[in-house]
Amino acid sequence: MGKPAARITDSVAHPLPPKLAPGPGSPNVLIGGLPAWRGMRLAAVGALQSAKQAADTAIKLAESATQAASGTPGFPAAKAAEEATKASVAASMGSLITSSAGGADIHICSTPLPIPPHGPGVVIDGSATVLINGLPACFMGCTILEAVGPTNKIVMGCTTVLIG
Question: How many CA atoms lie within 13 A of 48 on its CB side?
Fold first, then answer.
């Protein structure tokens, strides 16, 4: 059974913003009167996931160093290094996601890590069989890989159009 098709402004799991945006969504495919949301080409997902895993590891190492320095004179420096690492990772992953999206719609998540915000993200598990403008169609339950922080999910779609 198919799942409800995703469109610009459909709900996502993260609270800020709570909707798919800015997109732009398909320029010529409307679902329920809204532009269809399109994911990244599945062949390009592996490289992006590998980079994300390395980025997450760098952040975890920086957080561990800060935790280890807690209560010591080195804590302020460790905390500053952690925040610098997070900012650097957010910038590099944001740039990588934007440049490797290949025309896929980009969701900008402003949910804080606490700092910096999660940033740009793309759907990495869109439909393998339904394409919109040559890109995988997205649906409720699809995963959005964001620059930093945990993955996001599309939690709402158009129930009168099912994909899959």
Answer: 28
- Which residues, 6 or more positions from 110, have their beta carbon under 8 angstroms from its beta carbon? 16, 17, 117, 118
Higher pLDDT among residues 28 and 114, named by residue = 28
Q: How would you classify the pairing of strands 30-31 and 106-112?
A: unpaired
pLDDT tens track for 67-107: 999 999 999 999 999 999 999 999 999 999 999 999 999 99
In whole angstroms, what is the distance from residue 132 CA to residue 54 CA? 31
Instruction: Find the DSSP H helices in 14-134.
Output: 45-68, 75-100
What is the pTM assigned to this prediction? 0.94
Q: Does position 113 have pLDDT exceeding 80, yes or no?
A: no
Instruction: Give, as one character, the DSSP assignment of residue 6.
Output: P
Q: CA 60, 107, 16: angle at the middle one, nearest 5?
A: 70
Q: Quote the tokens at residue 1.
A: 């059974």
Q: What percentage of the chain exceeds 70 in pLDDT?
A: 100
Place of tokens 């280890």: 68
Return the pLDDT at 112: 83
**Nearest of 148, 142, 147 to residue 127 by alpha carbon:** 142
* Residue 134 φ/ψ region, left for φ over 0, alpha for ψ in the -120 to 50 degree band, beta for the rest: left
